[in-house]
Amino acid sequence: MSSVFDPKEDSVLTGGPCSPALQQAEQRMMQIYLRVRPFSKEELDNDEDQGCVEIDDSQTVTLNAPKGSATMKSSEKGVGPSIHRFSFSKVFGPRTTQAELFEDTLKSHVSDFLAGRNALIFSYGVTNAGKTFTIQGTTREPGILPLALEATFDYIRGRLYDGMDLKPFLRNAAQSLDPDQVKQERAAKAAIFASVREDCDHQRSSSESQMSSDSVLSASSSSSHDQTVPASSPAEESCDLFALWVTYFEIYNECVYDLLQAAKKRPSLRVCDDGAGNAYVKDLRWINIQNLSEAFKVLQFGNKNRSAAATKANQSSSRSHSIFTMKLLKIDGQTVKRVSEFSLCDLAGSERCHKAKTFGERLKEAGNINNSLLILGKCITALRSHQTADRTKNGYVPFRESKLTKLFQAFFCGRGGASMIVNINQCASTYDETLHVMKFSAIAKQVVQVIPDKHLESLNPSLFGRDGKPLLRNGLIDNKMLESYLSEEELLDEDEADVSLLPQSELLNMIENLRTKLLAERRRNLVQEMEIRKEMGDAMLQQILESEELHNRQIEELKENHAEKLENTFEMYKDAIKEHAYQCAMNNLEDNYVPLDEFTAEQKKVESLEHKVSELEGLLSRSRGVPVVPTVDRSYQTEPSADVKAENDRLKRLHKEKCVLERICEDKQQLVLSLEKRLAEVNETLRDVRDAFLEKSAQLEDLQKELNEQSKSLEDVLQQKNQEIASLKDDVAALSQQSPVKCPAPPKAKRGLLANIKEAVSSPRKGPISRRKTTRTPNK
Ligand SMILES: Nc1ncnc2c1ncn2[C@@H]1O[C@H](COP(=O)(O)OP(=O)(O)OP(=O)(O)O)[C@@H](O)[C@H]1O
């Protein structure tokens, strides 16, 4: 079965009713290019080449579902075709060079951009399909972005406006900067370049994929694409100058981040409306570029900040949508005559979670990526159905449901030409996702873009002050006037107009209308959100079921494999045992083998010898007078002989003895074990006692030391006291010699004290009893 998606067959798409104004405008289908990337070596090794992608001609490609793909399974159940054919504006095969791609896809857009029209190029495809390679390329093969920059500088060479005082403003206006603001611009630019220089110093000779400005510069200047730039008009050559400003930002997890912000934690930026229906990113950093080298440095700086992570499918997968925008200001003196914009968007890879092995943070990213791509798809489908005769569906295009589509809206609504480069790989394992991408692009191809045949001057935002005067002079926003008429919030907030001049009744009406609209909008959003959630839930459930089925199948296969292996091993062992038994039997047979005739001859010999023995025994007994015992044919004897019996008895006895000995041995062993245990316990106790002893002796030593010190100090005190007493004695003796008569009798208490002292000196160890005796002496 096969199906064909060819917009040419759909007659409605080529035209359709349109207003007279639009009839003057250029109507064209959105250009959709297909690029098929070559297989990598690993993919060829992994048998990914199964002829899934066939390029029929320069515009058509056929996809053949490989075995095992969901498409093939559905086709086998009769649900859908297994072959799909798609047509594109142009198909580029695996051997297409970057320069060739640029020539055939971007040439016209660059010309438009230089001539003052806006352009948007975006790359779309599954992860690892070659989107980043197409947009950015490598140092040896620069992509369409470096080539577009080169073409732009070729065009404006020699006509660069070197002042930095005219800068893009809002979506498509310009503003004049004062000297302080110019200084700030220069400082921001210098900071970026300094950072890039540092990086270059660190990675002077790093891998090819890292884009260094110098190497890209040399590569792009050596790339052999034709001169793409349009010849300048004579008027432009005479006096017009050009200023080129660039910006680089990413949309990651539905947040906009400036890739040219040097800060480590970049703030999320707001998407606002410029008052003329154009969405733009507020507070985005614009850098004025004077040459190609500077442009590459900015690109390099931004790439360093871009969110990338390794998924199972791609080692450095871009996890965000990145948008590089150039704005060209055409300047005459100090007047900006026009502003044109050229954006290149590298979309994050669409992917299925289980295939890309995404979990946690990566799963959230995948959800956001898939959601914004889903909304992009919805917008394109809605645009397409709005443009066809299918008017049963409402005309609502959900641009505002994702940041990406909000920013793209202007292009889809005719404010510039948009083209999509669809990137695919040819791998069998990603066939189903690739098919999804192709179906999406088939719808996108049918979108008609209506591009007004007007110059951009007339598309500038219509900003008017309260007095009705325009805020634009010579294409420039007059900042002072702007400040006096509108507050920043009024100017920047989405969907807000200047209503302050309206009478109160109208304002109330307006509020009521807005309330109704808001409620309706909320209801519709809720329904849409539920639809999206349901879609995503269904998709996830489907994925879970698929993976469960796959796992079950794998488990079954594993079980079968193991059972088979087990059976084989079992059989192998059985054979080996049989073989071994047979060998043993054969060996025994060989050892014990006696030929039959030899055996019978031997038996006969034995019989004759036995016969002889019995005859001799008969003779012997007869000669002794003992009655002859009739000979017994031993060959028929069944009773065991006496020797055998004795031997058996001996064996039994020995066995009994052995048993007894074994029992004794066991008992002894038990005893030894218990003794060993006791010994261990005793050792343990001994160790404890020894430790305790050591501790006690240490304490004893300390006490001894303390005692020694105390007795020493006591001796010192005693000695001191003795000396004092001796000197006191001397004093007493001297006094008694000097006046033996006059000297009054010492009071009783003093005599007692002296006697005490004397007693203490004469017998210091006698203690209180001896002291009591001495105290009594004076009373006698
Ligand atoms: N035309 C091509 N020729 C040679 N190699 C290519 C081509 N296109 C892509 N490649 C290589 O394929 C790999 C994947 O490409 P790339 O990183 O551009 O994929 P992607 O679609 O941007 O993936 P993601 O969405 O995950 O970022 C890279 O190693 C790249 O060099």
TrEMBL record:
Biased composition (Basic residues): 768-780
Coiled coil segments of this chain: 541-568
Transmembrane regions listed in the UniProt entry: none
Domain of life of the source: Eukaryota
Record-listed ATP binding positions: 125-132
GO terms under cellular component: mitotic spindle; nucleus; spindle microtubule
PANTHER family reported for this sequence: KINESIN FAMILY MEMBER 20B, KINESIN-LIKE PROTEIN KIF11
Full protein name: Kinesin-like protein
